[in-house]
Amino acid sequence: MKSNIEWEKWGEHDPLYAVASWPGKERGSSNAWTDAEFYELGRSDWADFLKHWQQYGLKPGHCVEIGCGAGRMTKQLAGTFQRVTGVDVSQHQLDYARGHISASNVTLTITDGTRLPVADRSCDAAFSTHVFQHFESHNDALQVFREIHRGLVEGGTLMIHLPLYDLPEVEASMILAPVAFLCKKLNDLHKRLSDLKVAIRRRQLRKGKWKSVMRMLYFDRRRLIRELRDIGFSDIEFSMFAMRSNNDYHGVVLATKRAA
Questions:
Q1: Rg (CA), the chain
Q2: Which of 29, 59, 94, 193 is most buried (CB neighbours < 10 A)?
Q3: Residues linked to residue 88 through DSSP beta bridges, in sequence order
């Protein structure tokens, strides 16, 4: 993925803030993340995610975590699942995680961002938080969803945190048609401007100059439902809930790999 470069650099520059970008918690600031605070945040956030996943239906076998970073959530997944495979594009992040996770049921592996280093039908669950929102494009996200489907057993489930939006349905009313058209055009314009800004900063990163790059990618809920169904997922649900750590609302999609 084109977005790998910034996350490799974030892993070098500030691995904890890259994962939990709270104001004032940057490395070097007076209130920067400590390891204890960072991994305690993972414990608290995982309890919130787990409750909703269990209500949906969860098999505690083998879980693959996409974008595990410094292991904030991985450390907690190890206590829920029999086996955890954490993958990330940043070797620095993986090295940091290895230094803070001692669980013997955790494997941490480098990835190119689109391919998952797991065998076909070898995982019972797939999890990711604060990752899909930073992908370069929806096509990149679809590639990862396809990889998740390949790796899951039939009946296996996913829980993916990602920002969602709903455009007005053009077919619903001729009155809403211009609104939907305008929303799409504004969204496309925002994407083009963001792409330009990111391209400039990536060139600077390649030259060895540190530049903060954290782009945001949003997902149309109806489109995502269609795409997940086409891939082979069923029982697609969306949930939004506040994290106890900071009362910030997180949206997630849950889905099940249907039988062939």
A1: 19
A2: 94
A3: 110
Q: Read off the pTM.
A: 0.89
- Amino acid sitting at position 102: S
Tell the burial category of 174 from Cβ atoms under 10 Å away from its Cβ (0-12, 13-18, 19+): exposed
Tens digit of each residue's pLDDT (9 = 90 or more) over 44-79: 999 999 999 999 999 999 999 999 999 999 999 999
List the end-to-end C-alpha distance of the chain, in Å, as a whole number.
30
CA-based diameter of the chain, in Å?
Answer: 59
Q: List, in order, residues 6 or more apart from 83 with CB less than 8 Å away.
A: 61, 62, 63, 105, 107
Q: Give CB contacts under 8 A, 24+ apart, made by 57-61.
A: 57/157, 57/256, 58/125, 58/157, 59/124, 59/125, 59/155, 59/156, 59/157, 60/124, 60/125, 61/123, 61/124, 61/125
CB 69, CB 19: distance < 8 Å: yes
With contact defined as beta carbons under 8 Å apart, do 75 and 47 qualify? no
Domain architecture of the chain: domains with CATH: 4-167+210-257 (3.40.50.150)
The per-residue pLDDT for range 146-156, each reduced to its tens digit, is 999 999 999 99
Region of 69 on the Ramachandran plot (φ > 0 left; ψ -120 to 50 alpha; else beta): left
User: In whole angstroms, what is the distance from residue 114 CA to residue 19 CA?
Assistant: 19
